[in-house]
Amino acid sequence: MLMIGHRGAMGCAPENTLLSIHKAIELGADWVEIDVHCVADKLLVIHDETVDRTTNGRGKLIDYSFEELRALDAGLGQRIPILQEVLEVTVGKVGLNIELKGLGTGKVLTSLLKKTPETYKNKMLVSSFLMPELEQVVRLNQHVKIGVLAGNNINESIAWATKLKAFSIHLRLQKVTPKWVDRAHDLGLKVYVYTVNKVVQIRRMKELGVDGVFSDYPNRLTS
Ligand code: G3P
Ligand code: MG
User: Fold this and answer.
1) Whole-structure pTM over 0.70, yes or no?
2) Ranges for the GP-PDE domain (predicted)?
3) Domain range spanning residue 113?
């Protein structure tokens, strides 16, 4: 079972920062997950539409210029990274799951993927709750794995995963049952589960035959 560091290793370092990604690698994560929003045609690595929770700024991303956002402190003196910086840190070391959070992210990512070597793309997975963003990536780029993030309506997400020929479906921990795991597997989908932080929960996911878990503590997967 793969261990995917959630927002890097957000239980151990400020989320979605390069420090957090380095920490996830140090703790032995197989993959890291990050969230991206589109600002000035660039992909910024941040979870929320506002900067309040994770930086020393106040307000919405759209009310800032790119340069102003980059001047904020995202914790322990870290800047909000751009996707290219994350790629430089992860390539050859750990897989990268890019979660598309905001509108327009699919289009911008597609342009970036056109310039990305195929070997990098083997260790990339693009996921989202936003099906139009994933559709955009699928339409314009055939060579990257797609993951459908499921909320409460898993039937609908499975239908989308089939339509988009997705690689994986990502289920909420609270929604995982043997039935859903088997159904997804029967359709050829990998099953990744978010967010799994307790050792007992991680063990349960392994017993259920889940293919990977997202955890804020990527060192908590014991054999
Ligand atoms: O990609 C898994 C997980 O990150 C989805 O939820 O809100 O933490 O981005 P969230
Ligand atoms: Mg996420």
Assistant:
1) yes
2) 1-223
3) 2-222
